[in-house]
Design goal:
This protein has 232 residues and is an alpha/beta fold. The protein is built from seven helices and six strands, in the order αββαβαβααβαβα. It is globular and about 55 Å long.
Length: 232
């Protein structure tokens, strides 16, 4: 872990690099396509898909090629899946709590959450990160009757080609800290499933912006998630 003193020493360079990335980065839109749907036959499954720009499908040409388009068909082999996508670019744990508080109350059997990158870029400390994860889980259970919560691990930001060094190294270490904290939290609760984001870091799995998943990566991500949702 990079020490606080080292971060402070590097802070002018890190700030300059972050500003450069913001100014130069290719900004990809959230794809068009349905954000709710019903598919399949079998045991009913009400699924909430929650998260940030990657969960919203940035990097895909249409929602059918993004995570929300790939995951429900895999689950439809055993379920009639009623799914809803609630995700937006820039979402953090704090903003997602506000989004959930404003979402009309309705029951879901399971919720998938993909968050963390924007918490990392906002330098969220692990203790505050964990506090907000507890709050998210509590709200999903109390307001939406969610029985099982699936948590995606954070991506290895230390490999993001868009980010220059040493910014890439610093954000990579911070992402690892939050990811480890999340995995530990999930291991202590049988209603939580931690799913490591073990996607290949090859060019075909990275979107044109060098930051988001490609359509091929979304397909593989869905395949990682599907086995963690109970069949019945």
């Amino acid at each position: 872990m990079l020490s606080l003193a080292a971060k402070l020493a590097l802070s002018p360079l890190l700030a300059a690099q972050a500003l450069y990335v913001i100014r130069q980065a290719l900004v990809l839109p959230e794809p068009e396509g349905p954000r709710t749907g019903v598919i399949g036959r079998g045991v009913p499954l009400r699924l909430l898909i929650l998260g940030d720009s990657s969960v919203a499908g940035v990097g895909a040409s249409h929602q059918s090629h993004a995570l929300s388009g790939r995951l429900p068909p895999l689950l439809a082999k055993h379920h009639q899946v009623s799914w809803q996508l609630t995700a937006q670019t820039g979402a953090t744990s704090a903003s997602t709590l506000r989004t959930l508080a404003d979402l009309p109350e309705q029951p879901f059997d399971a919720a998938f959450i993909g968050l963390g990158v924007n918490d990392v870029t906002r330098l969220t400390p692990p203790k505050l990160w964990l506090k907000r994860q507890h709050a998210l889980h509590a709200l999903l259970r109390s307001r939406f009757q969610v029985k099982h919560i699936l948590r995606s691990g954070l991506p290895p930001m230390g490999h993001f080609p868009l980010l220059p060094q040493p910014l890439r190294h610093v954000l990579g270490k911070d992402a690892k800290r939050l990811d480890t904290a999340l995995a530990t939290l999930c291991a202590a609760d049988e209603t939580l499933s931690y799913i490591p984001l073990n996607l290949p870091f090859e060019p075909k799995y990275i979107a044109r912006d060098g930051f988001h998943p490609s359509e091929a990566a979304y397909a593989k991500w869905a395949e990682l998630i599907a086995p963690h949702i109970p069949v019945a």
